[in-house]
From TrEMBL:
Transmembrane segments: 124-148
Gene3D superfamilies the UniProt entry points to: Tetraspanin (1.10.1450.10)
SUPFAM superfamilies, per database record: Tetraspanin (SSF48652)
Protein's UniProt name: Tetraspanin
Endpoints of the signal sequence: 1-21
Keyword Membrane: yes
InterPro entries: Tetraspanin/Peripherin, Tetraspanin_EC2_sf
Species per Swiss-Prot/TrEMBL record: Timema douglasi
Transmembrane recorded as keyword: yes
Location in or out of the cell: Membrane
Superkingdom per UniProt: Eukaryota
Length: 198
């Protein structure tokens, strides 16, 4: 009983998670844009933010939010006030073949659309997985209830059978004085402590 109740609660939570993933998918772009703009503003002051943003730009082969012009006005350490310096992670190809040379080719696409695509695809996959698991757990609830009902039926049947056997034994018993003398034989009791003389 409790097993099916817990499975039912988990089922409801998984359905809720799946619905929330689909509903919140619409506001994903606004949340991402706000968070990524905050990360860009902290790029020069927080090394973990810089590493994270560099990782995103290198892996997704992108630069900035919408384009590389998003880095204008963002302070990158060791830069002159009126000069926009792009992070090294925006560079697609270096002139000398390593990252110490000058950048020959920059990533032109922004990261926001790519991150949004990855997260929206992940959201669809997670929601689909949640619905699939919820369906499997619904089957688990049905089977658990069926198993519980079967166990209760077997237990009731055994108890009924015991009761019938007990009633049959009690009702078939008759004291020795009330039995038919032709079929009743006397019982002779001999003590085993004394040896009988034969």
């Amino acid at each position: 009983m409790w097993f099916s109740v817990f499975l039912g609660i988990i089922f409801i939570l998984e359905i809720s998670a799946g619905i929330a993933a689909y509903v919140m998918q619409d506001g994903l772009r606004d949340v991402l844009e706000g968070r990524m703009r905050t990360m860009m503003s902290q790029y020069s002051t927080d090394s973990q933010v810089a590493e994270t943003f560099d990782f995103i730009q290198q892996r997704l082969q992108c630069c900035g939010l919408e384009s590389l012009t998003d880095w204008e006005g963002v302070t990158v350490e060791d830069e002159e006030p009126d000069y926009t310096q792009l992070p090294s992670s925006c560079c697609a190809q270096y002139g000398t073949g390593n990252q110490t040379g000058s950048c020959k080719l920059l990533y032109g696409n922004g990261c926001l659309a790519r991150v949004e695509f990855i997260l929206s695809e992940s959201t669809v996959m997670l929601a689909s997985a949640a619905f699939t698991l919820a369906l499997l757990q619904l089957l688990g609830v049905v089977f658990a209830c069926s198993l519980g009902r079967s166990i209760r039926y077997q237990k009731t049947w055994r108890e009924r059978r015991r009761w019938e056997l007990r009633e049959r034994l009690v009702n078939s018993y008759t004291p020795i004085g009330q039995t038919d003398p032709k079929t009743t034989y006397p019982i002779i009791f001999m003590s085993g402590s004394k040896e009988a003389d034969c």
